[in-house]
Amino acid sequence: MPTTTPSPNAPWTPRAPHSIAMRIPVALAALALLACVVGPSFAADPAILRTITTNDLRGHVSFLCSEELEGRGLGEAGGRTAQRYLASYYTRLGLTPFGEDGTFFQPFEARGRNGRNVLAMLPGTDPALRGEFIVVMGHVDHLGRGRSGDGPVYNGADDNASGTAAILEIAEAFTAAPPRRSVVFFNTDGEESGLLGSRHWIENPTFPLESVAAVLCMDMIGRSEDGYVFVGGTGTAPEFPELVESLTKDLGLKPEIAAGGKAPTDSMVFYQKEKPILFFFTNLHNDYHMPTDDIEKLDFDGLTRITKLIYLVGADLANADDSPEFTEADQTALPATFGQRMRDRMANARANSPYLGVEPSSDADASEPGFVVGAVAEGSAAETAGLKAGDRIVAIGETEVGDFRDLRRALGGRSVGDTVRIEFVRGEETLTVDAELGSMGSR
C-alpha cells in the first residue's frame, strides 16, 4: 500500500502493496489445481480473493483523498498526481499501457480544462477470446476546492476514491490469475463535470468500441450499511440477475438490484452504445459533494466485500465461453431511497451553508462595480455587522465583489461560523466590518 504522501507537483512512484510478490505465486499454485475449471469456480479461488485486502484499500483511499491532492480537481495538480499514482501502480502490476501513444494516459480538453483518462490492459489467455474486453471503470476526479477554487478541500473519499481503490485491487487480483478475455482498467477524468472523460473516450476510443464485451462501473461504493450494495443495469444482459444474486449471497451482501441501464455515471455512455453494463453504488449520503466526505466515514469491511463482488462478476464474464448479449433496459437505475436521500442531503446542505443575509437591489446603478444591498434580513450576520440597504459591497476577504456572482463565489468556500471581513461603500465612505456567517437553516 502507499506509505508516502508526495507533494502534488512532484513526480512519484508508489510502492506496490507489500504482499503482491508473495501473493501471486501462492495464487498461481492454487490455480494449477484448477487449470481445467472456468466460470465461478475459477473466479472464486480463495487465494485470488485474498489479494483483495482491507489494508490495501485503506492505503489507496488514504493517499487519493489526502489534503495534498486537493480534491483531485479536473485539470489541477492534485488530479495529475492521482493519475500518476494509478499509472505507476499499473506499471508495477505489469499491465499494458492502453491510452494514447503507448502511455497509460488519454489527454483531452473540455470546458477550458485539460483532462486525462488513465487506461491499462491485462491481455487474455485465450487466443480466441483475448480480442474481447471486460472494462472495469470508475472516475478518479472530484471537486477540488469547490466552485470558488480557493475553499476547503473536497477530498471525495467515497466519491470516488473508494471506487478507484477498488479498481486497483481488482487489477491486482486479475494479474494473479489472468482470465481468458482481456481486461481494461479505465479511470476516467472529468466525470464530475458531466462524464467528460468517458464521453471523450467514446468519441476517440483507444481500442475498438465493438470489442467491449461488458462494462463494470463503480461510483461511491464505500458507504455500505450492513452489507448493502446497489447494482444497476442487471437488465442489460440476460445472465446478469442470476450472476449478481448468487455472488452477493456468497459474500454476505444485501443487494438492491435494478434492471435499468441508465445512471448518472460513466457507465451511461457505454449503455447508450448498446453495451451490457453493471453499476455498483452504496447510495447517497449527506456528505455527497461536501468537504466532509472523508475517509473516517467509510465502511472498509463493506468496501472489501463489494470489491470482491465486482472482481468475481468480472472474472466470471472474462472466463465464460460466450460474451453477454446486450438487451435494452431504458429505465434509470437508482436506489429506491435515492430521491428521499437527495432531499435530505439538500436540506442538510442548506442548513449548513453559510448565510450573510443580504438581498440584491433591483434598481442599482450597473455602471458601478460591487453588490448593492437592497435589503438586510432580520437577525442575519449582515444586520449584526451593521450593513444597510444601499451599501455597495466591493470585497469579501481577499475576493473582489463586482456583482451577485462574485458575492456567491466569495462565500462559496466558507463555513457557518466563519468570520469574514466585508469592504463596502456607503455614500462617499469606504468602510470595513467583520461578520460571523450564519446558516441558511436559521433563516
Largest sheet: 9 strands, mixed
Q: Based on helices, strands and strand pairing, what is the structural class?
A: alpha+beta
The CATH architecture of the largest domain can be given as 3-Layer(aba) Sandwich
Q: What is the subunit arrangement here? A: single chain
Q: Considering the protein shown, what is the CATH homologous superfamily of the largest domain? A: Zn peptidases
Sum this structure up briefly.
The protein has 13 helices and 17 strands. Strands 1, 2, 3, 4, 5, 6, 7, 8 and 9 form a nine-stranded mixed sheet that branches. A hairpin with a 2-residue loop joins strand 15 and strand 16.
Could you describe the 3D structure shown?
The strands form 3 sheets. Strands 1, 2, 3, 4, 5, 6, 7, 8 and 9 form a 9-stranded mixed beta sheet that branches. Strands 11, 12, 13, 14, 15 and 16 form a 6-stranded antiparallel beta sheet that branches. Helix 4 (54-64) packs across helix 6 (157-176), helix 6 crosses helix 10 (300-319) and helix 8 crosses helix 10 (300-319). The chain is 32% helix and 20% strand. It folds into 2 domains: 20-348, Zn peptidases (Aminopeptidase); 354-442, Pdz3 Domain (Roll). With 443 residues, the chain is α+β, with helices and mostly antiparallel strands.
